[in-house]
């Protein structure tokens, strides 16, 4: 289903992952590009409502974490990325994307703490985990939701 857009999405997620791991920042330009790609998918598939709801849910869920953490737990790039990912995977797959991001990120953080690669107050970029969660939701989100329901 519209393979060129999906190729661009996955390449952009890879680029975001590399930049966030190295610089701890997610450039606005890449989040905007992801959002545009999500709108292209909405246009092709005609699923405007599901994708807009996905963007709002992604924005609100990560926004809540950003606000509750006092802007220390996550940055604005993660917040913007979650809205763009909502446009890409839509509702309810954005919930799969974000939930799996937290699970995978948490497991990796525990491993890094246990092996001594990170200290308890060290920062770990969250963008790569959002990218992994979004890829999981894009590839298997519908099947995971069917398993849950």
Helices and strands in order:
Elements: H1 3-23, H2 28-45, H3 48-68, H4 76-89, H5 93-114, H6 127-148
Task: Give an account of the 3D structure.
It is built from 6 helices and no strands. It has helices at 3-23, 28-45, 48-68, 76-89, 93-114, 127-148. The longest helix has 22 residues, at 93-114. The model has no long low-confidence stretch (mean pLDDT 94). It is mostly helical and 149 residues long. The chain has one domain (3-148).
Short recap of the structure:
The chain has helices at about 5-25, 30-45, 50-70, 75-90, 95-115, 125-149.
Mean pLDDT: 94
Helix content: over 70%
Number of helices: 6
What is the distance, rounded to the nearest whole angstrom, between the alpha carbons of the first and last residues?
25 Å
Largest sheet: none
Structural class: mainly alpha
Fill in the keyword field for this structure.
149 residues, mainly alpha, 0% strand
């Amino acid at each position: 289903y519209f393979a060129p857009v999906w190729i661009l999405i996955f390449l952009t997620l890879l680029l975001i992952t590399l930049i966030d791991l190295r610089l701890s920042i997610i450039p606005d330009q890449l989040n905007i590009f992801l959002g545009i790609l999500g709108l292209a998918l909405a246009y092709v598939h005609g699923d405007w409502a599901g994708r807009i709801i996905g963007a709002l849910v992604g924005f609100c869920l990560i926004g809540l974490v950003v606000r509750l953490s006092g802007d220390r737990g996550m940055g604005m790039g993660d917040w913007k990325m979650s809205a763009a990912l909502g446009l890409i995977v839509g509702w309810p797959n954005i919930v799969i994307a974000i939930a799996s991001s937290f699970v995978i990120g948490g497991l990796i953080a525990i491993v890094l703490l246990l092996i001594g690669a990170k200290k308890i107050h060290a920062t770990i970029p969250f963008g790569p985990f959002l990218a992994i969660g979004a890829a999981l939701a894009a590839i298997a989100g519908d099947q995971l939701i069917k398993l849950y329901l």
